Amino acid sequence: MAAPKDPGHPYAQTSNIAFDFYDQPTSTAPFGYEHYISLPPVYGTSPDKSWPLILFLHGAGESQRGKNESYASIRHGVPKIILCYDKYKAGMSTPSIDIPLAPRLRGRNPNKGKSGNADLSSTPLSAEVCRIVAEEFITVTPSLNMGKKAHRCALKTELRGFYASLPDQVILADPNAIQNMVGLIRTGKMHCNPSEHVPGYGWNHSILTALLDHIVQSYRVDIDRIHVTGFSMGGYGTWDLALSTPHRFATLMPICGGGDEVRAKNIKHVPQWVHHGERDDIVPISASKKMVEALTDAKAEEVRFSRYSEAAHDSWTKAYGDIEVWRWMLSHKREHGGKEIGEVDGVVVPAENKVSLT
């Protein structure tokens, strides 16, 4: 297992729970996601126990664009809960955090919209919520870097120093392009520096799948209790990831997101709890409503839809602060379909379809 790395800022430092920052070591493309991992405090002393896992996908406003900006990715949602747990264990009865916006966003709230709420990152959390998430789950928080718009690979040709610039849409939309690059890298015709490769806007389900494979192989994960949640861009990413691997997950909890309602029937067997603010003018509530309606029409087995009448874009503070959503996750494991196509011991993508980024 790779050693954690320094995120370059103090905001992820903890004393009462493991919360470390890593590079993605293997991927289906020549780049991956930096990510934070938290482990339950008794993980190390419970060697025979496997743990449920939460994959958390943040929104666009929480992405990195400057150097050492991964702190933007931990201001809300699951990583906020982990950091509040650390403060709770240090003696703060109603814990909260104080992490600044990324410099590009200071002076304006990227999640506010025209009629929205103030920045709610510092809203306190209950000790009960902190305990259940930090003590009952492994959590994984990828940090998406939108700082560069192209993926650059140095080709070993007769012209030393020649570079090919590969646009985001080629890599994200064309699986053949990914596989071709994998072949070039494996044969030594293409050399990629993972620090130069970032995924641009939006979550890439193929790379997230490879990241989950690595986590499953590296930690004691209960592969029947993997949950996905995210807000805004991460809400879209939650549904997109599930649609790409529809038999991998125990539950889905997309917040103020949207998805492909035409394919919604393919995930009708997965329990889902959807959240959205009625006043959201960044991602309108109709985006969630269309998915809920499509799932209902497909006779989905369990779909909940929480609508927040006073919330604008930030409906996630209310959702993640509700102890019931975490109890709901804990009560579920995947039961239908058994496992994902091609899955072996919790791993979905074969090793021959991955490249090393280390």
How does this model look, in words?
The chain has helices at residues 77-89, 127-136, 168-173, 175-186, 205-218, 233-244, 285-297, 316-320, 323-330; strands spanning 18-22, 26-27, 34-39, 51-57, 138-143, 150-155, 163-167, 190-191, 221-231, 251-255, 272-277, 303-308, 355-356. It is 26% helix and 19% strand. It is built from 9 helices and 13 strands. The relative contact order is 0.17. The chain has 358 residues and is an alpha/beta fold. Strand 11 (272-277), helix 7 and strand 12 (303-308) form a beta-alpha-beta unit. Helix 1 (77-89) crosses helix 2 and helix 2 runs parallel beside helix 9. An 8-stranded mixed sheet has the order 1-3-5-4-9-10-11-12, sandwiched between helices.
Strand order of the largest sheet: 1-3-5-4-9-10-11-12
> Number of DSSP strands?
13
From the N-terminal CA to the C-terminal CA, the straight-line distance is 12 Å
Structural class, from secondary structure content? alpha/beta
Uncertain regions: pLDDT < 50 for 5+ in a row? 149-178, 189-199
Radius of gyration, CA atoms, in whole angstroms = 20 Å
Mean pLDDT: 86
Helical percent range?
Answer: 25-40%
Largest sheet: 8 strands, mixed
What is the strand content? 15-25%
Q: Quick one: overall form?
A: globular
| Total of helices | 9
What's the order of the H and E elements?
EEEEHHEEEHHEHEHEEHEHHE
